[in-house]
Amino acid sequence: MASRIVLFQLILLLAAAGPALAADPPGIVPATQAGGDSGSFSAGRGEQLFTTRGRDWSCATCHTADPRNPGRHTVTGKAIAPMAPAVNPERLGDPAKVAKWFRRNCKDVFARECTPQEQGDVIAYLRSLGK
Amino acid sequence: MNIPVRMYPLVILVTATLLAAATAPAVADGKRKPSPADPAWQEECGSCHIAYPPRLLPAGSWQRLMQGLGDHFGSDASLEPQRAAAIEAFLVANAGRSKDGVTAPPLRITETPWFRGEHDEVATAKWRSPAIGSPANCGACHTQAERGSFDEDEIRIP
Questions:
Q1: What is the chain B residue with the closest CA to A111?
Q2: Does B134 touch chain A (CB under 8 A)?
Q3: Is the ipTM of this complex over 0.90?
Q4: Is residue B22 assigned to a domain?
């Protein structure tokens, strides 16, 4: 049940995408506030996950430790546009795309999928970054 | 549409540029065959590396690749089955010709005899230099690889 609520909030979070959110105060994601303990997302936890090394990599390996910077695929060398919506408004706007990349990249980094809670935390983190 | 006369040259220029961009065949290999494009392929197969043109591998190779996207050279590149099927159809329809051999179709362009032949002048150490990283990073040397063009006069080795 709790995980259902988190999932629902994650969907809300994604649905509420767009440049408007870039202006929200750091660390606060509107859809997360009503949820109480189980449902609240934390930018701090998101940042921690982002820089945690799994098998060989962390998210930061390709996206850099500051997601406002452009990154580089560590194997192929291809440039990756910044992840923070404040500097790259196209980010986090398409829920299907976000879900696809969480699924793939969490498996690459942690050898498992990330929970809805973890995904929400990372999104909260990315949204918390200003220009 | 009401366009002031003084704007005509601009309008013509813009139209001509758009037309040229839309109709110019993306240069294929040295032989300048037009390189077909497909939006789903471009998006899904051009995100982690350039979208490698279908003509660079035979149909059997693309089929093998598309069956194994869950573990794609150590990365998860999995796709929804329907989308994967559509991309596979595009790749197979535009694939290169296979050498009828007994060996399994290769998974890497960079391991084909063709690739090795074209690149025999590139020193082994060069491939792993920091600016290149991997032979699969075509764009490091082929400045127009993103467009599917590998012309000799566009090569700049970093």
A1: B76
A2: yes
A3: no
A4: no
Tell me how many domains chain B contains.
Answer: 2
Closest by Cβ to B78, choosing from A73, A78, A104: A104
State whether B93 and B147 are in the same domain.
no
**Where do the DSSP E strands lie in B19-155?**
none
Look up the pTM and report it.
Answer: 0.81
Instruction: Tell me: do B44 and B99 sit in the same domain.
Output: yes
Q: Which domains does chain A have, with CATH numbers?
A: 2-128 (1.10.760.10)
pLDDT in tens, A30-84: 343 333 333 589 999 999 999 999 999 999 999 999 999 999 999 998 899 999 9
Give the structural domain span for B79.
36-106
Question: Is B72 part of any domain?
Answer: yes
How far off is chain B from A41, nearest CA to CA, in Å? 26
**Based on the domain organization, do B97 and B128 belong to the same domain?**
no
Cα angle B105, B109, B111; round to 5: 80
How many angstroms away from the CA of A30 is the closest CA of chain B?
Answer: 31
Question: What DSSP string runs through B89-145?
Answer: HHHHHTPBPPP--SSPPPS-GGGSHHHHHHTTTS-HHHHTSTTT-STT-GGGTBTTG
Q: What is the token pair recorded at B124?
A: 């082994």
Residues in chain B with CB shorter than 8 Å from the CB of A108 are 74-76
Cβ contact (<8 Å) for B75 and A108? yes
Of the residues A76, A90, A105, the best mutation for testing chain B's interface (the one with the most B CB atoms within 10 Å of its CB) is A76
